[in-house]
Amino acid sequence: MSSNDQGEGSSSRSVSASADNHHPHQQQQQQQQPAQLSRYESQKRRDWNTFGQYLRNQRPPVALPQCSYNHVLDFLRYLDQFGKTKVHVQGCVFFGQVEPAGPCTCPLRQAWGSLDALIGRLRAAYEENGGLPETNPFASGTIRVYLREVRDSQAKARGIPYKKKKKKKRNQMKGTINEGTSSSIQM
Hints:
It is a single chain. The chain is mainly alpha-helical. Helix content is 57%, strand content 2%. It has helices at residues 13-36, 39-57, 69-79, 112-128, 141-158, 170-186; strands at residues 85-86, 108-109. The chain starts with 12 loop residues before the first helix and ends with a helix.
């Protein structure tokens, strides 16, 4: 009996023909699907799984529908222990200095930008996993206030005030382009 006469684990030639035609293609798609996720999608999935595990590890465990902004705040504070950003406390001699001259015992925290991006990914993942936008704990105003406070305190501790980048208005940009174009036409 040749290997073409019988499919993998199959005793019928018609079944093996369909298995040979469809099964390898399905396996290939399943193997490629995780590789096709963008970096953002992969990180979002990993963050969602981490948050879910955090909720399951609570005593008592918290079901996702019962999750509130308080659980999200606790999660963000929990993550601080894994942070790599030195945030000087007010009593530290390096508080407010952009480049401290030496080491200190101030705590390491999660950087504001990392937390902000994390909340954005979790906010999207919540709704993609069946949560309603109206009940999204990651979209809570309390979370936005917390992130703003983290941003401001970290900026103050480093001596770098955070300034929001101003977007150029589209009309101003068009006006500049049109003026340049009209002046060259008039010549």
